[in-house]
Amino acid sequence: MTLTSFGPANRIKRSAETHPLTWRLRDDGEAVWLDEYQAKNGYAAARKAFADMAQDDIVQTVKDSGLKGRGGAGFPTGVKWGLMPKDESINIRYLLCNADEMEPNTWKDRMLMEQLPHLLIEGMLISARALKTYRGYIFLRGEYTTAAKHLNRAVEEAKAAGLLGKNILGSGFDFELFVHTGAGRYICGEETALINSLEGRRANPRSKPPFPAAVGVWGKPTCVNNVETLCNVPAIIADGVDWYKSLAREGSEDMGTKLMGFSGKVKNPGLWELPFGVTARELFEDYAGGMRDGYKLKCWQPGGAGTGFLLPEHLDAQMYAGGIAKVGTRMGTGLAMAVDDSVNMVSLLRNMEQFFARESCGFCTPCRDGLPWSVKLLMAIENGQGQPGDIETLLGLVGFLGPGKTFCAHAPGAVEPLGSAIKYFRPEFEAGIAPTSAAAPPLARPIVVGA
Fold first, then answer.
1. Which member of 25, 77, 194, 385 has the lowest number of beta carbons within 10 Å of its beta carbon?
2. What's the pTM?
3. Which positions make up the signal peptide (predicted)?
């Protein structure tokens, strides 16, 4: 995994002033353990929060900073924190870290947990103090075995140093932290499905309201934040709101920096901490180095498999939520994927929709039946056995499974790339429609889903 510096060609070194998430990283890629982390000003923000700030002041500082969730949804973190009940009689509250990073083409949280585990712990410690939560869980993707090992070691180091457990920093505040490995389900990225799984239940999303802030883990108030989100908290507390806001490029409505990356057949696939508002062209050309020799950029996704495809002419869009929305899709996780000109879009979409269909929890009909239906249609088109009207049926599914039509956001994210692929590359789909005079294909119509 590559992590380069703030400027093109590594001309600018990472620093605490410009790289709040990554300046402590080691050049050799090894984990930063407690002694080194503290030597690099680690836990200074936690000490400040415990000694000098009221709990409500921590919440207000995070709210004023403009920090938004880094898992893909982009909900304002301080607003989410503000939803936790103020009633002091509720003495059992939970803080959950969503580390179930299952979005295809996304690996940013893995890097933070493997190489900077104490940054996440410090972020959770400050957050727990602000939210008055006495217990926290890191819900970790089961395949992240190295991250699990490093996080567990870091938790033990923090306990031994009095930074976790009872009477932290002599404040009278108690906070226990546990690493919980999941069973590998994409749907656990949805916060209420994550909560169900943590409780030992089937990983289905819950009806909202009530929201987790009111009724979460075991019926108690719960706040769920993403890994990268929580890792931003120490720098905000240590260096202040104005500094944090100043990191973003002019024109960006999102504050601070973001871990962004590019995968695919680019010369330098990797991950970089960059200011919100950097253009996708800078990310693609200056950091990823453009396409490898012999390949041409056909299209790209800005933030994981659940975001729509964009064309090369969209590379001048700024990388922040509103900037990507202007060209017709979502920023998502900020980890982009380049699709080269050798890729058939029908095959690519069939592969994606198979993944999303398999990962559906099966709770609601549109998602449970609609996604397998899209796979069957795409398989027929891929094999040159599509029938007239199949493309219109696929577009109908895009509408039927869109935002507000299903129980959670799984299906809308699954069909967004499908709709954009048909929009920009319809001739490739039309090429898979068999002539009307051809013999009836193996996949007869009407389709009986699940047959």
1. 385
2. 0.91
3. none
